[in-house]
Amino acid sequence: MSEIKKDLLYTESHEWLEQQDDGHWRVGITDHAQAQLGELVFVELPGEGDELSQGDACGVVESVKAASDIYAPVGGEVTAINSDLEDSPDLVNTDCYGDGWLFAINVSDESELDELMDADAYTEFVDE
Amino acid sequence: MSEARKTPLYDAHLAAGGQMTEFAGWLLPTRYTELMTEHHAVRRHAGMFDVSHMCIVDITGAEAAAFLRRLLANNIDKLEAPGKALYSCMLNEQGGILDDLIVYWLEADYYRLVVNAATAAKDLHWLQQQSQHFAAGKLQISQRSELALIALQGPEAEAQLLHQLPSLGAQIKALKPFSVLRDDHYCIARTGYTGEDGFEIMLDAAAATTFWQSLLDAGVTPCGLGARDTLRLEAGMSLYGQDMDESVTPLQCGLGWTVAWEPSERAFNGRAALQKQRDDGVAEKVVGLVLDQRNVLRSGYQVFSADDELLGVLTSGTFSPTICKPIGRARVNRNIGNEVMVEIRGKKIPARVVKPVFVRRGQIMPGIET
User: Which pLDDT band, with edges at 50, 70 and 90, does B1 fall under?
Assistant: First the structure.
């Protein structure tokens, strides 16, 4: 059974978002997603400063057998990326909600957050 | 599309946590735990694969040898004695590869082919059609669907097999690569698809689960299709349907070494077409590619020269668990340098051109790492 953390927001493409103390939102992929992919060997992230629109394919996570696009859960500017993933992409497998975060984004239109799922809705979505 | 078939070991795969997928019309595990773990188990210890989906066909009768001399691009007369095996392509008249296979010489007038699952129906039809050239009473073709096939691979494969079959101990120890032994229950070949020492074991489907479970209990790691693919690609072995198919001849896809030109009077299927291609010159060759940065190579990625000329395409690619770098097998123009570019999602990434064998017997080949 995969872990779904309370208090995060979720997308149908299995990204999560969590607001940081500085007001920016961290983005990662869920435990369900990493388990489906298997051990990651490569992560391609957007560039710091990139302006993303909601739904943009902005990165890729790849295991040996599968590649999966990462979609921007909301629009905004990329304010940070997790450069540790360059050498240790498997951090996404071992700690997907912590050290395996992907990038942070400064949300430009907060109403886009309303379209995302909470933990209960995502649990139901994954179970379907 | 009919329902996917189950091998005799299907329930064992589920019990071991196998993540099942449909492959060539069969339900097989892609992995049980992690692909990397399974891959390393084969390189360092011993792993096993259920390859019962592969199609076993016996060719018997006084005309069996003559039939195979015509059918196969490699020459069964290279087999010195019963108990020897040979890798070969089976070609159509245009020289296109219908399938690649291993032929085992079991005894006089008795050969066994192991062909790919995805091509089994086509192959059987082709064999029947080709058999029309031979006297019916002197050639029998029979599929052995009642047999299971388990590949036991890795540096500890021999010790594991000796542990299972102590009564065959002396014979197993004496079994050379590309050789085969048989008793009433087992047909054991020292062959495989991983680049490691190992065995392919044919046995009655009814006995397969017990044998598998016994290997599992002895510590052999069950391995899925995912590890099978990374292991064979590291070992420089071709995958039918990906690295070759009917649209190419062995000369175009790095399998020229499997074509037996001598004796020149042997009229095998596709010989005239191959001869013409060889005389005209083959424009393509197969190379290995290594990226010295993190990424994953995939089949279908295009290969370019430094000045942006399209050189060819990757037919297989992966992230090598042994080398920890992206590797691939590409079919390219014959005249390329040592440095090329691979296009990945619109970006051109530099790649080194190497021989398409990356790892053998647990060792990374010279020149691959730097």
Answer: low
Specify the fold of A13-122. Answer: OB fold (Dihydrolipoamide Acetyltransferase, E2P) (2.40.50)
**For B51-100, what is each residue's pLDDT tens digit?**
999 999 999 999 999 999 999 999 999 999 999 999 999 999 999 999 99
Query: Which architecture, in CATH terms, is B1-278?
Result: 2-Layer Sandwich (3.30)
- For residue B276, give the 3-state DSSP assignment: helix
* Amino acid (one-letter) located at A72: A
The rounded distance, in Å, linking the Cα atoms of B156 and B55 is: 27
Residue range B283-364, CATH number: 2.40.30.110
Which among A42, A60, A86 has CB closest to B319?
A42
Ranges of each domain in chain B: 1-278, 283-364
Domain boundaries, chain A: 13-122
**Using only C-alpha atoms, what is the Rg of chain B?**
21
- Count contacts between A and B (CB, < 8 Å): 40
ipTM of this predicted complex? 0.90
Minimal Cβ distance to B34: which of A38, A67, A86: A38
Q: Which residues numbered 275-334 in B keep a CB inside 8 Å of some CB on A?
A: 294-296, 298, 318-319, 321, 326
How far apart are the CA of B160 and the nearest CA of chain A, in angstroms? 28
Round to whole Å and give the CA distance between B317 and B92: 27
Based on its alpha-carbon atoms, the radius of gyration of chain A, rounded to whole angstroms, reads 13
